[in-house]
Design brief:
single chain, 80 residues, mainly beta
Length: 80
């Protein structure tokens, strides 16, 4: 079962806790750099990954897809 995660407004550019090489979001296909990758924290406020600024798709520290966001603003969500 997936643990609770919180999105933040802190980018990987400001707080480089992970080294990410992903250049394009897999859900919305928009180009994302470290300015557009927002850090995601767990319930203990430990960074566990990052999310796309545009669609909130969540990736872990190895750029693996964790949870698909909402690129089309439709109330349908999925899990990877």
């Amino acid at each position: 079962m997936q643990k609770k995660m919180s999105h933040s407004d802190i980018s990987l550019y400001i707080m480089p806790v992970f080294k990410s090489i992903l250049k394009k979001c897999n859900a919305c296909n928009k180009k994302i750099d470290n300015h557009k990758k927002m850090i995601v924290f767990n319930e203990l406020y430990i960074p566990v990954g990052y999310s796309c600024k545009y669609c909130n798709t969540i990736y872990d520290e190895t750029d693996s897809l964790v949870d698909i966001g909402n690129p089309d603003k439709v109330d349908i969500y999925g899990k990877a």
